[in-house]
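Now read this:
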Amino acid sequence: MSSTPRKRPASDALVAGAVVAILVALVVAVFLTGAGNSLYPPAAATTQGRDIRGLYDIVFALAIGIFLLVEGLIVWSVIRYRRRPGDIELPAQTHGNNVAEIVWTVVPTAIVLFLFVISWQSLSRVDAISAKPDIRIHAIAGQFQWQFEYLDANGTKVATQLAPAYDTNTGAGGMAVPVGRSVQVTLDSPDVIHAFYVPRFLFKRDVVPGQTNRFEFTVEPSEAGQVFRGQCAELCGIGHRAMLLSVIALTPADYDAWLQGLIEKSNATPEPLPSGTVLNVTAEGVKFDTAALEVPAPPGITHDVDIRDGGGAVLAAKDTIDGGTSTNYSYEPMQAGTYTFFCSIHSNMTGTLTVK
């Protein structure tokens, strides 16, 4: 049985065109009204972050174009070739089309090659490490806190920052960096895998035990005075939530003054142990008489008191407090049984809570 082409009214093309126009209008409206902001990463604060953002914009624009093309063809096909009353025969069939096959092979290949080239170029710029950066910082990630060591041009430590998060009340803490200068960060971990992540840097770098990773960034001069919040982005244990950090962008002059103050603080004579603290160690033959020593913790080491049940589920998670301070925690009533109270920052600080 032969098939003959069926004629479709010209209004079909108009309807399909109208539907596609509505799709385009909706996409434009999403971005003009700001509703599409959640589809974008935060504004880049570094030169390297701007490179990543530019790559994202190109990929996103291509994705929107392909979406509109595919959805438009689907809508047009549904309307143009829909079945009508009285249609009892198949429309004319196309068996093979060299032009169509070449187009849908060449065009995607060209797009993929283009994305490969620009991605490679961006990756090379973002991962570039200079031999003589302006600033060198050694970041040590341990369960469950960051430590920042500031190095001179020869890689020698000149100061240590033990407060990784910025305190808005006191203006203390955080990893300070100067804007407009290249900052090279080396990353080390003495225990498990961590990750250095600051959302506005549009960048994450893992911290792997036994392997020193590094990266470099330059904060845009317009970001002077900003505080960028960051965190460990690898689940590293029960105190993972407390591994927060801050990067403070300062003008070069303010940074130099800040670093000088940190150097003086780091080189200051440490406070003596509290009066009455005595440590006794006796050598017996070729070994000491004790394998562990304890001294009071200095102010600045954070703690908390959380509670978990026998199955390991945390029933109460409290905010941390600095060493040398005190607070009152309150807990909801619990069923009779045995529970564990612990410090989420230090895995060895645990005890047993019995509810009768």
Observations:
- The first helix runs from residue 11 to 32.
- The CA atoms of residues 248 and 304 lie 26 Å apart.
- The mean pLDDT is 81.
- Helices lie at 11-32, 47-80, 98-126, 252-267.
